[in-house]
């Protein structure tokens, strides 16, 4: 049996058993997927006490990724991120101080939520070469090393986001070396990189030296939304594997979606099949598409093989306007902002998709534009720990009246949920202008 969770659900759906259990639809189709939607009945195993079909499926996926352990998440990488930080917190030796995690600023909101819930402090890394986008950090191993040297407190873990939303990939082997020399674990938000393992050159974070990473299977693999994996390396510190399920259960629903688990299960079977070949073809077609766009006068940026990021403002059209034109041509991009448009590709994109995109881009005449305007987040003035500020009494004020106040609830760009002002930080005039640039007109500050 190669997809045990799916096989169990299918056999059960076909068995004609009277379902005196959740879910309420009893397997009768309304939407269409109900027959395979289950709860933790006998034989169906338990996600957080897995010993049967779920354990078997997770072990199979762990073997595919070369991980010591893989945990399924039916609540995205958001759940995995909280779990990874809880694991690192649970296993650190010196608990006399609040945990301190080093991270470049382009973290996903789930990281901040974990800091609020677990009372974690952050040592923000500001790379020597400033990023031109909120979504990217451009962090190097030297930046991480310099932050270790500068930081007066002991760091408990390093956390980086790679690939980032724009498709830039960090030098994980070099960063892992720095972490190793300081004896701290490296945690990677690899939400966008589940496919990296299967490229001609395996560039998955676990292969390259990360201790833990999360992969949003639903972002780049054929999985239902919400399907994600938390991988723990064979070289991870003692205790990581053992406490991992318990740590995940702290934040997760006790009703994990069996549909999502089945899609992770079937996905593993797919990955073990012809996926590598299909992915190589997609990477080659994506590269050809980038070359064609660049020949038309556009500039594509980023390292990822399956992401096309067009720096369109440089060619006289904002990413948001480009997105509108693409939509008129029946193309929906992943993300746009004033500077950029991002498109993601997988083997499930057809040749027709690529041709449609190339034709739409050929119809727009690139012109003289402006350089990327955004100049990175300025160094934060931290006035209070994140958790303390997040749970303090707050009031909402127009951003123009927020100067000098302390940020209450972290403010993120609407998509892709990267923080502009973090709970406990002072709202400065620079932060106010970035908030306005992202269309944010009011924020909550401490009373
Ligand atoms: C970089 C990054 N990390 C984490 C997440 C959260 O992933 P999920 O939607 O699987 O919870 C996202 C979502 O967009 C993301 O872009």
From TrEMBL:
It comes from the Bacteria. Keywords: Pyridoxal phosphate. Residues 4-293 form the Orn/Lys/Arg decarboxylases family 1 pyridoxal-P attachment site domain. The keyword Phosphoprotein does not apply. GO terms for molecular function: catalytic activity. InterPro entries: Orn/Lys/Arg_deCO2ase_major_dom, Orn_Lys_Arg_decarboxylase-I, PyrdxlP-dep_Trfase, PyrdxlP-dep_Trfase_major. Its cofactor is pyridoxal 5'-phosphate. The keyword Nuclease does not apply. Pfam families: OKR_DC_1. This is Arginine decarboxylase. It comes from Ruminococcus albus SY3.
